[in-house]
Amino acid sequence: MEVKLTIAAPLPLALSAGLGGLGYLSVTGPLPAWISPLALLAVFALAHRQASWQNRGLVMASYLFSINLLVTRSLFGLYSIEPAAIATLYALVILYITALSAVATATFPSTLTPSRILLFASSMSLFDRVCSDPDLLHNRAVPFSHGYYLFSPALSGLYAQLGMYGASFVIYAALLLGLWAFYHHRATGVAVFAIGVALAIVLSSALPQPRLEGYLEVNLVQPGIVGDGEHFVTRSEDYLRRELSPQLRGGALNVLPESSLFNYDFDTDHLGLLAHDNLLIGGTIRSQSLVYNSVVLLQKGRVTARYNKIFLVPIEEDARLQAGNERQTNTLRFGDVILGVGICYESSFERIGLKAVHNGAQALLFLSNTQSPPATALQLRSVQVRSAETGRVALFVGMAGNTSMTDAKGKVVWRMPWASSERRAISVPLYSGLTNAAHFSAQLSYILVAVTCATLVSLLWKGLHRKAERDHQGRRDFL
Q1: Whether pLDDT at 395 is above 80
Q2: What is the pLDDT of residue 228?
Q3: pLDDT-derived band at 246, boundaries 50, 70, 90
Q4: pLDDT in tens, 325-341
Q5: 3 state SS for the chain
């Protein structure tokens, strides 16, 4: 029976690999976002029909993660800190644990074989890959699968070198190999496990690194405005008018948070006219009778670049705002510098960072006017994730607090206190070229999709050939 499983392993491995490639390409832009979950369901529906009883648990786990993915995508309200959202979140955690148990039941320990180890590692790293959009589930409740780099320097290096898909594959494979070695050899199992993990980390450090190309001078402004109900707009505007003073003139980029200025026209209203030099700010902008939540770059009082928010919060934003075109690039050009941008809760989406890097972003900026300290802290953790997986310095600029700078490894370098009114001049390191993780994943994704297609074509050809042989044999028997 084990021989049959080993022979059959290339098909599910190829399907898992192809799904990983499709998932990455849908996140970074070449393919529509709906391709990944649709392909996931279709492939595992096929796998359920083809699965033998040994790996039925793995297929059931796949279904659970498919449900996890679809539910998480449809319930963007998870980002609102409400009881229903928290209950849904932990329900998804239960699904996650159940799926792990199902896979473990199907593979551990006596039936564990190298082919099953590869199948398990490939599938589980794929699940980490697709279920991280949005990332809240991993950031808050399941730190092992997505937030492990925050807690271990060694795993941080592995994550930064290989990306989430590669790092989780190595971790799951090393974990199962360690269990397998320990089960069969006992005394040497721990040594084999430790050496394998150390070797993987050392080898990963040899991959190419992003190149430091220079620095961008930036003035970050945190108004420190919290609440104040109906006067929020007035206070925001008054503060911004004070900050748009001759003190901020010069060649530096002045970055302000997402403001509460609603239905604003920066080309005609007086805030735009006050922007004497270079100003990056977020707000709601009119455009041909539609209102967008946007990041705009103003130079000498005119909008020279703009990004419209793609992911709207369904509680209020989707009722009064228009979502931006998902195919647009979330990058703005400031002189010779390309900046990746996001607004509000968009930092929680993996495609925001990766898509920007694939379009040449040298640094990331996220603007927010969130008024809740826990929600802002959650946003900052998401910014750390975006920074670590792209190898880019990320700036988080908040209206109320937690304005901060995160280095290219996902570590917060400094942070402004909550509810403080501050301005800080900094030099932001700029990196060029794809990161090791992005470059590795991009090339691997195209290869995996091609290999998967070739595998499926080969299997189809063999199936048709066998059918033709059976038909021919049937005719001979009939005669």
Answers
A1: yes
A2: 64
A3: low
A4: 767 788 999 989 999 99
A5: CHHHHHHHCHHHHHHHHHHHHHHHHHHHCCCCCCHHHHHHHHHHHHHHHHCCHHHHHHHHHHHHHHHHHHHHHHCHHHHCCCHHHHHHHHHHHHHHHHHHHHHHHHHCCCCCCHHHHHHHHHHHHHHHHHCCCCCHHHHHHCHHHHCHHHCCHHHHHHHHHHHHHHHHHHHHHHHHHHHHHHHHHHHHHHHHHHHHHHHHHHHHCCCCCCEEEEEEEEEEEECCCCCCHHHHHHHHHHHHHHHCCHHHCCCCEEEEEECCCCCECCCCCHHHHHCCCEEEEEEEEEECCEEEEEEEEEECCEEEEEEECCCCCCCCHHHHCCCCCCCCCCEEEECCEEEEEEEHHHHHCHHHHHHHHHCCCCEEEEEECCCCHHHHHHHHHHHHHHHHHHCCCEEEEECCCCCEEECCCCCEEEECCCCCCEEEEEEEEEEECCCHHHHHHHHHHHHHHHHHHHHHHHHHHHHHHHHHHHHHHHHHHHC
CA distance 55 to 203: 32
| All structural domains of the chain with their residue ranges | 2-209, 211-434
What are 356-375's pLDDT values in tens digits? 887 889 999 999 888 788 77
What whole-number distance in Å separates Cα of residue 448 and Cα of residue 471?
A: 34
Tell me the per-residue pLDDT of 283-338, one tens digit each, with 9 for 90 and over. 887 777 788 888 988 887 778 889 998 877 655 666 677 777 767 788 999 989 99
Contacts of 3 (CB under 8 A, 6+ apart): none
Q: Which CATH architecture has domain 211-434?
A: 4-Layer Sandwich (3.60)
Indicate if the pLDDT at residue 254 is higher than 90.
no
Tokens 């996001």 appear where? Answer: 342
Interstrand relation of 211-222 and 253-258 (parallel, antiparallel or unpaired): parallel
